[in-house]
Task: inverse folding
């Protein structure tokens, strides 16, 4: 099996976020750390070179492919902030309709800034996502 590219590292989350050039995005990222730590119950940890993750689970697909991933996370990208909080929730239009200005893909939400979204709805999505993953993949690390 090929080695997974995105793995937990010892890189400092604070140092990574301090290097975000846009001051508003940087402030939003530090606030996301606070929100996600509280919602997941796990401390922030770097995954690879650009993802701030919270918690961890081991997945194994029917195809036999397996690996580890963070239960929730985010990454400040050039165009937006990618939030990794949606496995199994791409069709959850009830919460997504209440979230505010965002784009959604299969496993990600994309936002420009925290002020565009309802943070309490984001917290609900994070908690539901973590619960979903813990139930689907019960052997937690």
Result:
């Amino acid at each position: 099996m090929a080695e997974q590219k995105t793995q937990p590292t010892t890189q400092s989350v604070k140092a990574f976020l301090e290097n975000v050039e846009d001051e508003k995005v940087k402030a939003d990222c530090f606030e996301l750390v606070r929100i996600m730590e509280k919602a997941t119950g796990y401390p922030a940890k770097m995954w690879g070179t650009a993802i701030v993750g919270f918690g961890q689970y081991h997945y194994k697909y029917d195809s036999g492919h397996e690996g580890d991933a963070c239960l929730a996370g985010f990454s400040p990208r050039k165009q937006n902030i990618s939030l990794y909080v949606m496995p199994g929730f791409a069709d959850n239009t009830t919460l997504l309709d209440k979230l505010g200005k965002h784009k959604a893909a299969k496993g990600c939400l994309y936002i420009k800034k925290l002020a565009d979204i309802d943070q309490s709805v984001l917290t609900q999505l994070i908690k539901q996502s973590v619960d979903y993953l813990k139930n689907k993949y019960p052997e937690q690390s």
